[in-house]
């Protein structure tokens, strides 16, 4: 009897208490019931739970252990015996990156490279970095491939490409490094974010019967459901580097079918959520963040881990999930569903310092 790759792995997930982490943790537990799953997170968004009433289980209950700490100071002992690191932890979007530019560089790039070094010293054999297709920025012409020039327009995108380049230059023999350039995330989660384009549109439709498009609707966005992100990361920790991509791999993670214009996304939401009006700002100046992405390399390397969720699936999942929560907050853009608002509340109450470390005295 052969053992499936990953079955008995010891897997460390950084940033597991964010938007993607709960979905990834559940997926890995289902796929590898005997794996040891360890979470490491600072807890910045721990209370941003979107679990339906009566379902009182924290998403972290599927893990074997949850550790709290800052990725800028990951303790070496946590990596002992670990087979794979999935590095999700990051200041995770453009508004936060613009507000906390120096901190974004320190967390998203510097800490990531330091953890890769620590992992290599500890004998970790697979390191997965959650990168982003946002590194393409504004890209005219056809869909972008991994070998095309990048054009990062924001602190967040610059930190992602900076980490990729840093990892490329490091000597990490024996450790397979996979940089997954994810399309824009979407879909339901136990810690839902609404500061993502499709999620925002569905929330607007559910809470106020309207989808408001701030741009003229023409920018391109590739999307990937969080459930499919989990499948891609499963592949990345189990891939055989000798036959599937080599010891260092950068790959666009998503599917051609999920390249959409913002207008198409708005109209698809209106087609699913009854009574939804679509408002598009035809007079808006061009949005420079527009790119289509070619995912043929991912399709070639990971044929058994291709995205399964259609645009309709993602919209339906969000619609059903928000309704189960009794969601009706038309002012959600000023709520904890927007990660920047959560950080601002922590700062206002002096629970956080400006460098996004916890103020332990205030918490005492």
Put the structure in a nutshell.
The protein has helices spanning 21-31, 94-99, 101-121, 155-169, 197-208, 226-238, 262-272, 296-301, 311-324, 339-348, 360-363; strands at 10-14, 36-41, 65-68, 84-87, 126-132, 176-182, 184-186, 210-213, 220-225, 248-253, 259-261, 277-280.
Main CATH class: Alpha Beta
Mean pLDDT: 92
Number of helices: 11
Distance between the termini: 53 Å
Give a count of the beta strands, DSSP E runs of length 2 or more: 12
Q: For the largest beta sheet, what order do the strands appear in spatially? A: 3-2-1-4-5-6-10
Fill in the CATH topology.
Answer: Rossmann fold
Q: What is the helix/strand order?
A: EHEEEHHEHEEHEEHEEHEHHHH
Note poorly predicted spans.
Answer: none
Report the C-alpha radius of gyration, rounded. Answer: 20 Å
Task: Give the CATH superfamily.
Answer: NAD(P)-binding Rossmann-like Domain
* Global shape: globular
